[in-house]
Design a protein that fits this description.
Length: about 325
């Protein structure tokens, strides 16, 4: 079906209380009208997501901000002006019209305006904010193509809108304005450096505190089927590779012949070590390593700057499945 027809059909489905898989620049989302509690409950059910893990509301138009948020501090306004539409989610005190199921009973609502044109056209046509977590089963690798969604959730959604591969490929950065100072709830597609250049210092909670600020931030997430092991250097591979098929996830190309270790498959995230390109390729590369039958996925950390912060966060949390 032609894309504009898919968007029209998707908007009808949203208005009627259905569930739509939609492309965004970050990852594919599983969307429902933010004002339809039954549809929201279905999103949780399809994903098998615990009800304590709140949803991000996606808007197409800045006018929704005042309708949904009770208070918008100047720093938040500034960020919105400079970065939206884009991979940045902002948590603000919510108005009563936002159903509790969307925020898991929290006093704040998470809002984002995606830059993906298809997503915005769909939301605009539906005429409601669209609550949309990633379109995958809870805890597994996020989808960056329509095919990823089809493979896992094809039978349970009302339509999958195919907008091509996601251009950012990693979830949004989440900044909360529920406390006096802006607080990072999740590193993501907008570099922290860019945010801090606008707001000044952002508070970064310690890993063990994240969950208090942001209930869905369980340590373990983004898990591949094969165990993912974070390694410090390529030299760690011989000790883990006895009798195992090892897949290596690396930022830059690695010459396999230089090492005596038995790496079976290498997924390089970017030919020239570009962290944006790497973020964009990350989830698809993790899926390919799973699909090639690797017994173990060894992942090298990337520099902790720019989108590297978000990549390392996803790798760390994927590795927590095995502890
Ligand atoms: P996603 O998994 O991409 O759907 O992002 C949802 C995440 O955003 C949740 O797991 C929370 O960490 C965070 N989040 C969403 N809504 C809220 C909220 N109202 N207050 C605090 N964090 C939120
Ligand atoms: Mg997710």
């Amino acid at each position: 079906m032609e894309l504009t027809k898919q968007i029209e059909k998707g908007a009808d489905i949203l208005r009627e209380g259905g569930v739509v898989a939609l492309p965004t620049e970050t990852v594919y989302g599983l969307g429902a009208s933010a004002f339809n509690e039954k549809a929201l409950a279905r999103v949780f059910e399809i994903k098998r997501r615990p009800f304590f893990d709140p949803l991000i509301l996606h808007i197409s138009n800045i006018k929704w901000l005042d309708n949904l948020a009770a208070d918008i501090p100047a720093a938040a306004k500034n960020l919105i002006e400079k970065i939206w539409p884009g991979p940045l989610t902002i948590v603000l005190p919510k108005k009563n019209c936002v159903p509790d199921i969307a925020t898991s009973g929290l006093p704040g609502v998470a809002l984002r305006m995606p830059s993906n044109e298809t997503a915005r056209a769909l939301i605009e046509l539906a005429g409601v904010p669209v609550a949309a977590p990633s379109a995958n089963l809870f805890g597994s690798v996020s989808p960056t193509t329509a095919k990823h969604v089809e493979d896992q959730l094809g039978g349970s959604v009302d339509i999958i809108i195919d907008g091509g591969p996601c251009t950012v490929g990693i979830e949004s950065t989440i900044i909360s304005f529920m406390n006096a100072a802006p607080t990072l709830l999740r590193p993501g597609g907008t570099p922290l450096e860019e945010i801090e250049s606008i707001t000044g210092k952002v508070i970064i909670p310690a890993r063990e505190d994240f969950v208090n600020h942001s209930p869905g931030r369980s340590e373990q997430h983004y898990a591949t089927s094969a165990p993912l092991l974070l390694i410090n250097s390529i030299d760690d591979i011989p000790s883990i590779s006895v009798d195992k098929k090892v897949g290596l996830l690396s930022l830059e190309p690695i010459d396999k012949n230089l090492f005596l270790s038995n790496i079976d498959v290498i997924e390089c995230l970017s030919e020239n070590g570009d962290l944006r390109e790497a973020a964009c390729n990350l989830f698809a590369a993790m899926r390919r390593l799973d699909d090639c039958g690797a017994d173990i996925i060894a992942a090298l950390p990337v520099p902790n700057t720019g989108l590297g912060l978000a990549i390392n966060d996803r790798l760390y949390r994927a590795s927590r499945k095995n502890v």
